[in-house]
Write a structure and sequence with these properties.
The chain is built from 1 helix and 11 strands; from the N terminus they run ββββββαβββββ. The strands form 3 sheets. The protein has a 5-stranded antiparallel beta sheet. It has a 4-stranded antiparallel beta sheet with strand order 1-5-9-7. The mean pLDDT is 79. By secondary structure, the protein is mainly beta. The longest helix is centred in the middle third of the chain and has 5 residues, at 63-67. The chain is globular and about 55 Å long. Strand 2 and strand 3 form a beta hairpin. It is 3% helix and 44% strand. It has one domain (3-114): Deoxyuridine 5'-Triphosphate Nucleotidohydrolase, Chain A.
Length: 149
């Protein structure tokens, strides 16, 4: 498993922490930014990212942001192996006051998670009959079985 993170323009204010098979990416503000009350604003973090197939990065807002009434939009933000290009965070100021973000300010943390392919298998338990309004016993029930590969 690999996660590749590249700083744009030869610099990055964000970092990656790895312990065994756990990866945490810290996303920090690249440029000073002001987010007005009720505003949704895209904020740069100066990162390009590549994630192996079979993994996703779940990104959650930092405690600093949530204490200021700011959250990610959408939250959590999910990046998978199909992502290309620069990572940027869309932030929503849910508060009544403007929020000032400084360069290097913690914005979010991303947690790398392994995903498994799930195979759904459908079973019918009732006979198919033509009725206008099927009774409960005539409805089709579905059993879901999970197969992890």
């Amino acid at each position: 498993m690999t996660i590749k993170v590249y700083g744009l323009h030869g610099e990055s204010v964000s970092d990656v922490i790895s312990t065994d098979d756990n990866y945490v990416v810290s996303f920090r503000c690249a440029d000073p930014t002001i987010i007005q009350a009720s505003e949704i604003k895209t904020v740069r973090v100066n990162l390009l990212m590549s994630i192996d197939e079979g993994y996703i990065l779940n990104i959650y807002p930092s405690t600093f942001l949530t204490n200021q009434g700011v959250t990610l939009f959408p939250s959590p933000l999910i990046i998978d192996s199909s992502h290309t290009g620069e990572v940027s965070l869309k932030l929503h100021n849910c508060g009544k006051n403007q929020v000032n973000l400084n360069r290097g300010q913690p914005l979010a943390q991303g947690y790398l998670t392994k995903v498994f392919k799930v195979k759904l298998k459908e079973h019918e338990f009732a006979e198919k009959t033509l009725v206008k309004t099927p009774s409960r016993s005539q409805r089709k029930d579905t059993e879901i079985q999970f197969e992890v590969k």
